[in-house]
Amino acid sequence: xxxxxxxxxxxxxxxxxxxxxxxxxxxxxxxxxxxxxxxxxxxxxxxxxxxxxxxxxxxxxxxxxxxxxxxxxxxxxxxxxxxxxxxxxxxxxxxxxxxxxxxxxxxxxxxxxxxxxxxxxxxxxxxxxxxxxxxxxxxxxxxxxxxxxxxxxxxxxxxxxxxx
Length: 164
Hints:
The chain has two helices and nine strands. By secondary structure, it is α+β, with helices and mostly antiparallel strands. Strands 3, 4, 5, 7, 8 and 9 form a six-stranded antiparallel sheet that branches.
C-alpha cells in the first residue's frame, strides 16, 4: 500500500516542530483556572461562562501568544469550549491572566446537574487545549483542579481552587 506523499510531508513537519521545541529547551506554558463566572443572558440551548485563566511561562524567554483553543470539563463532563484570539506577550519566568467567554450546552449542563450538585462537595474540573504562539506553533496544556459550587455565580475570586 502506498502512503500519499502529503501525509509523509505532514508527518515530517510535525516531527521537525517537536524536535525544534526540544532543541530550544522550551517548556510548555502552564494554564490554570482562577475564576469561573456564570454570565447572565443565556438562551434556551446555550449558557455563557467567563473563565479567568492564569498562563505561566516557566521559560527564560518570552512567548508571544496569539490565542487559545480549549475545552472545560466539570466532574468528567464536557461543559464548555472556548476560543480566544487575545494576543499577549507572556514574560519570561512570568505569568498573565486572560478572561475568556465560553459557550456550553444548557442541555448537557442540565443532564449532569443533579449528579454535580449532590453532596455539596467540590467538583473536579479539567481545562485542556492549546496555547497558540507566534513563534513556536501550538503548545498543548492539560490542567486539573477543583471548583466549589457554593462560590459560583457572583464571580467570586477563589471559586476555583487546587490547581494540580
